[in-house]
Amino acid sequence: MVTATARQGAMAEVLDALRRMERGTYGLCEITGEPIPAERLISIPWARYSLAGQQQLEAAGLGRRVALPALEGLSSAEAADTEQEEAE
């Protein structure tokens, strides 16, 4: 189950990306100042850092991986329980 905190974090990342679009800084790494490759932005549209910038953060112990929460639904454990119940 997705927590309210996870949803708020994901929404904050998306809103920050929209603000960067408004300022004209979307797609620029906040660490290196270099453009973030299109492939990275396609896979992580709210990306703030290029791969090199992300690696610098992680090397300094400051990086954190942010992702949108998973879609709500049955977890794999719940799905297995449901399938087992249906089989009985």
Structure keywords:
88 residues, mainly alpha, Four Helix Bundle (Hemerythrin (Met), subunit A), 53% helix, globular
What fraction, in percent, of the residue positions are helical?
Answer: 40-55%
Spell out the helices and strands N to C.
HHHH
Q: What structural class should be given to the helix and strand makeup?
A: mainly alpha
User: What is the number of E strands?
Assistant: 0
How is this structure best described in words?
- With 88 residues, this protein is mainly α.
- It has a single domain, classed as DksA, coiled-coil domain (Four Helix Bundle (Hemerythrin (Met), subunit A)), CATH 1.20.120.
- Helix content is 53%, strand content 0%.
- It is globular, with a radius of gyration of 18 Å.
- The model has no long low-confidence stretch (mean pLDDT 80).
Brief summary:
By secondary structure, the chain is mainly alpha-helical. It contains four helices and no strands. The chain has one domain: Four Helix Bundle (Hemerythrin (Met), subunit A) (Up-down Bundle), CATH 1.20.120.910.
